Amino acid sequence: MNSLRSTLLAATAIVLSFSSAAVEYRLPAEGSNLVGENQYYVVPEGKLTLEQIASQFQLGLTNLLEANPGVDPFLPKPGSTLLIPHQLILPNAKREGVVINSAEMRLYYYPKGKNTVEVLPIGIGQIGKDTPENWVTTVQRKRANPTWTPTVNIRKSYAAKGITLPAVWPAGADNPMGLFALYVGNLYAVHGTNATFGIGLRVSSGCVRLRDEDIEHLYNSVPVGTRVEFINQPIKATEEPDGNRYLEVHEPLSRTQAEFDSLEPVALSFDKAMTRFV
Predict the structure, then answer these.
(1) Contact criterion met (CB below 8 Å) for 253 and 66
(2) Cystine design at 125: which of 81, 130, 153, 220 (Cβ 3.0–4.6 Å)?
(3) Is residue 86 flagged as an active site residue?
């Protein structure tokens, strides 16, 4: 009987390639969708935050929280062991350009002419300001040192908190867009941030956020005209050529504030193909 393994089994010394920013995987052989290996990490003495550990291993905060239920989301206990989830099932999407899977808060970049995929953690839109899904577009332009033009609704929401935003926020280190931006479609961007927290969380007004070094890497690597696909796949599955079956599950995104605030997990929805697989 084929084995069904969930998120995900191997926990060995890591054998991935770390560039200055992204984690780079060699694409699997034909018929395979599984890449990478998991790793264990022992939290050292001192006040090392979970965000610092996530950044060290090119993960978002939610990636670590999902892989390590019960871990302190701020200061994990020194001496405790964390699972570093670097074994992945590639999303069910065209392996071309950029694929953004909101459910797992990861961005996949398939460089043209290379047999590799680069994976970066992202922050996505808040409830009611959702990052797009089921949408294919392109990188229309890129900009270093972008300005930020908050929408009328964003300015109103800040004003309700007693904060007056300028019509245009000038470029600079304190700009919420960060230092680099890739503009996709007419309303959205993949950009940096002026914050030190929030990657792997629902924090934006719909755009996709990355850490400074990650967006700089994409800015220098992704050409204008590159295909960009937005998806929402909390469940990924693969049957490998050796007959083993793997399932990678992420908590589905909350659709309402009540769901987001609830202590109950959001229910998973299985389509017919996934039901047959399981």
Answers:
(1) no
(2) 130
(3) no
**What is the CATH topology of the domain spanning 4-231?**
L,D-transpeptidase catalytic domain-like (2.40.440)
Tell me the per-residue pLDDT of 134-143, one tens digit each, with 9 for 90 and over: 999 999 999 9
Instruction: List, for residues 146-199, the tens digit of each pLDDT value.
Output: 999 998 988 998 999 999 999 999 999 899 999 999 999 989 999 999 998 999
Where are the domains positioned within the chain?
4-231
User: For this structure, is 191 an active site residue?
Assistant: yes
List the catalytic residue out of 86, 207, 217, 250.
Answer: 207
Q: Is 125 exposed, middle or buried (0-12, 13-18, 19+ CB in 10 A)?
A: buried
